[in-house]
Amino acid sequence: MTVVAPSAKAVKQAIQWLLRLRESGSSPALLQQCEQWRSTRHEHELAWQRVIHLHQDLDLRTIPGAGVALHTLETSQRRLHRRQALKLLGGVALVGSATWLARDLDSVSAWASDYATATGERRRLHLPDGSLMQLNTRSAVDLAFDQQQRLVHLKQGELMLTCSEAQDQTRPLLVQTQEALLEGLNARFVVRQDIACTRVSVSQGKVAIHRPGNGQVQWIDSGQHWRLDASGAQRLDRVDMDPTAWSEGLIVTRDMRLHDFLAQVSRYRHGYLACSDDIAHLRLSGVFRLDDPEQLLQLLPKTLPVRLRQRTRWWTRVEHMA
Amino acid sequence: MPSNDSVQTLYSDHHGWLHAWLRSKLGNAADAADLAQDTFVRLLQRREQVQLNTPRAFLRTVARGLVIDHWRREELHRAYLEALAHLPETQAPSAETREVLLELLERIARMLEGLKPKVRRAFLLAQCDGLKHQAIAEQMGISVRTVERYIADALYHCYLLRFEDER
């Protein structure tokens, strides 16, 4: 289900580029050289993408207290005690368990995807066939592009695909989600993998829904919004949020419940964000910029009778204005 | 993936024994019960067929991994709570957030487990403290070249762990 993994050489080169850039404070000249290296081969770009994500995930500065905790572990005697404990258990498990644990890390996993975005990140990518893929926050996809197929596996999050104009009758452009296989025909469409459901909105062209165990193909026309889950495919009369606005860095709502709005904003930021039940039903219409979710939240008390309660920067609750 | 039936049989035949074995390792009935349960859950999640010739040896291998995991986690939790106790109150995360952060931290700590101590130290100085290579070299009394090599090695090690399934 994946494109060919980059070679060890490409990965090591990507790591070298990353470290040089980091050390230089991202000097423009170096940045340009790095971009050139990335563009020379698809393999380079893939290695780069992976290394960048890995590096982001390993950025311990984003976890308060992490540095101190790990240094404590490092310097304490505990590590030694544990080694002894391991011997008690039988040292054979040591190496085996390290790889075992690593494989168990996360079942959904941006950890092992061809392309992934971090929280709050958005990204544009050109697929090998010239189609444009935009990834929204916290998204992960695998690509399987070869002689037989053009398949994008959306494992998590949301993407927008603008199909390449070049027709390819033998290899339809497909997006796989948990619930369905979607086929784009000269289309521009958004697909979101939610928990146990897929949402599809088509803004141009046509998209076919193929569902497992159901031979019938359902067509979605431009301007339509659909929701697919285990019980079936359902066309939505209205949506309370412009499904494509994120690709321009915006949330655009029409009469959206505050509770649902905060759930959307949560996708773009770290930490806890919720509202008390008595204001969950309040409605919100407007255009909000995604580049700074904190600032966006500060707007709420200006338009609704609410206040923000922030205990730490990781914990925010919207409450009724007392 | 093993069939549910075979795990079912394993469960009814060996659960009592496994619980006792875990209890002897952990000295705590509640943790032992949790880990025994986890062991069977792992079996259900595995892709390959369960090897049934020596069921107890097999269960012990799976459970052993979980015990080690459990100890590592406890060790890390202790160190993390200590670290939080030293943070100013305004920076201390809430209980809910703490759980999430701890989980993130655990993943990272697991990835770093297999590194040589010096390599890990250099890497942590870069990732936690954001130190430049020169500063790390001074602090550790090694050359900048070596620091570069250590950090690159650490990243490559993590890369292999993370993308292993894709190779």
UniProtKB/TrEMBL annotation, chain B:
InterPro entries given in the database record: RNA_pol_sigma-70-like, RNA_pol_sigma-70_dom, RNA_pol_sigma70_r2, RNA_pol_sigma70_r4_t2, RNA_pol_sigma_r2, RNA_pol_sigma_r3/r4-like, WH-like_DNA-bd_sf
Keywords: Sigma factor, Transcription, Transcription regulation
Coiled coil: none
Source organism, top-level taxon: Bacteria
SUPFAM superfamilies: Sigma2 domain of RNA polymerase sigma factors, Sigma3 and sigma4 domains of RNA polymerase sigma factors
Domain RNA polymerase sigma factor 70 region 4 type stretches: 106-158
Signal peptide from the UniProt entry: none
Domain RNA polymerase sigma-70 region: 10-74
Keyword Kinase carried by entry: no
Family to which the UniProt record says this protein belongs: Belongs to the sigma-70 factor family. ECF subfamily.
Protein name per the record: Sigma-70 family RNA polymerase sigma factor
